[in-house]
Design a protein that fits this description.
Blueprint (H helix, E strand, L loop, with lengths): L1 H24 L5 H37 L3
Length: 70
């Protein structure tokens, strides 16, 4: 019984310890890194939007053909 209790107490302590280690290793990105990440995210949004637009353009005529222009 004490083994389970020990494990029950150990898990949250280990989680807190790992979280503290992670936070101490994290650093604030420099201006250059931030701009680079922002550009990559913006390009990703643009590409996904373009793909969605193309899919929608293809889907509308096919849907009209299948449904019959209702």
């Amino acid at each position: 019984m004490s083994e389970k209790l020990k494990e029950f107490i150990e898990v949250p302590q280990e989680f807190i310890h790992d979280g503290q280690q992670f936070l101490t290793r994290c650093t604030k990105p420099s201006r250059k890194e931030f701009i680079q990440i922002s550009k990559a995210v913006a390009i990703g949004f643009a590409v996904m939007g373009f793909i969605g637009y193309i899919v929608k353009l293809i889907h509308i005529p096919i849907n009209n053909i299948l449904v019959g222009g209702a």
